[in-house]
Amino acid sequence: MSAGAASDQTALKVDNLHVSFGNPRRGSLIRAVDGVSFSVRQGEIFGVIGESGSGKSTLGRCLVGLLSPSGGGVLHDGVDPFKFSRRELNRHRRKYQIVSQDPNAAFDPRMTILQSICEPLNIAGEGTKAERREKAFAMLDRVSLAAEMANRYPHEISGGQKQRANIARALMLDPNVIVCDEVVAALDVSIQADMLNLFARLQEQFGLTYVFISHDLRVVSHISDRVAVMYFGKIVEFGPAHAVIETPLHPYTEALRSAEPEINPAAADARQRIILQGEIPSAIAPPGGCRFHTRCPRVRDICRTQEPQQRELLPGRHVACHFAEEMLGEKERRSLDLAGRDGAHQSATAHTGR
Amino acid sequence: MQQLAETMVAGQDTLLDIQNLTLSLRDQSGWVEVLNNVSLSVKPKEILGVVGESGCGKSMTALSILRLLPPRDSRLGGKIMFGGQNLVSCSESQMNRIRGRHISMIFQEPMSALDPVFTVGYQIEETLRRHFKLDRREAAERAIAALDSVGIASPRRVATLYPMNLSGGMRQRVMIAMALVCEPRLLIADEPTTALDVTIQAQIMDLLLGLADRTGTAIMFITHNLGLVAQSCHRMVTMYAGQVVEGGPVRDVIAGPRHPYTAGLLHSIPDSNRARGTLPSIAGRVPSLRHMPKGCRFGPRCSYSMQPCELPQSIENECIEGVDRREVRCNRWDELELRGVGA
Question: Closest approach of chain B CAs to the CA of A258, in angstroms?
């Protein structure tokens, strides 16, 4: 694994990734992830935003090798994990951990927290029993969980504590990349703030790379360096977190931003509200043309027939919408500070598949 | 306690008036107090936000109002005045005439609130036929009209479907149709959009507020999402550990919280306008019901906690320009300068 946390090193590279479920002959093929490309640098926090059904969790599972791609591929630090034999994959997979949403479902109710946390090391066959325990206590300390929690059972601790234990377990094998799938969604705001702080601290301490998946725009934009917005299996917009949230260039991102309830009354008054009509369409029969056209407030004829290509509108900012340039123009006219800085082309690359 | 003279008649300025409500529940290890001296009120057509972390007693307050608690294992004290009646002492048959007709409720998880073995049309008809003298055909027509009013595209067809055939957003629309079909005077919405995506949440909130406005229904809106409260409520109360700790007009509370807990909740929300960095969070967690701290219940988590906080506190009131009241349960509220959001 890459030792130094040099930020130009690529930890994860996703190239035209497709993940499908179901049977194409029975006409029930679901393309959960449909041509997604991006790369995550070592030590970066990469956010993925999307509604339920956008394919973000499928993407997350595929990134750590829990699902196999049906097209395209994933490179872990330059190697393709899906070329490995099962045994090799299991060894390799240790460096790529996933922390999932529901901490209640993540623990075996018959095992104490300590037993659960030691389990990854038991499976990997690392260290003696004493060493494993020692490491487990060290990890509990890192995630600010009191040592006396170790001997409790999952039902005896709170959701926030369980989620901390969940993270401690993911850290046991010294991973390089952690996919965080909706890790704070089930928690109260005050606990959520604590967890986000914890994630940020651990990232610095261990030089971790995160793929941070969430439906919560605030959460993702707070923690991430760059974000990708997914809709219906595709990345519709992607770029530096702050820029994407502040000046969305895709109507979907704009709508998500506007749907997020605003606490500051002054900001709420100033903002124009866009309420999207309808719901995410059926996954079996995706709409033709642009997949967002059935709900898009800016829809025109071309959107119904032609799929927009993803292109780099501003350095590092990629958008797949026919009218992205138009939106950019509008925003510039509204004198939002988005001066078209030409210059350093960021190492990030993204393009739509096919 | 308040005099009986204050019990309101229709048209007076309080629709629901909860005074010193206490609730104890019994489990294997005995009785435990869940709500302690909760007082709050809802005016006609008003939207009241109730916020707080899980375990603060928000939902328990709602269930107490509708008396949806196990009768043998719960004990209610205080008063819940609604339409001149004290709901605490109403008989079960009196409650049955109120539930769904004058006060209705929307739950967080529509799938578990709808009956899986009946069509949604039938379930709406059932509510109607329970409270009005309608035959099946009339009830069916009104159910279809109700589905139409919540923006369901082909209501006649949807009425024949079962809950499992519908998406989460559609189910919540059905719940709203069912809750508002009798045009109740009070709707209790307990986290109605928490299980939904933000874009659907925006749709549902828009719909709910629009319909309530049209039917003149007041809403008690329970949520942990302060953004939604800021956006849609007139007044709010913050609950903590079974007590109301702060109350007042939404804009005033958000701009200048008086209780450290409300301030903590406001600041722990990530804000895209603020630079990335450590989020202010509230240390610790909600105390266990069996081990309530002495004095201020928020004391052990409060960064402003001092000597006087160990003394019992009461709700302190203050009128703002004679219009609306601010309430706070904190011994130090007038010395603290808590930062709000916005100006």
Answer: 9
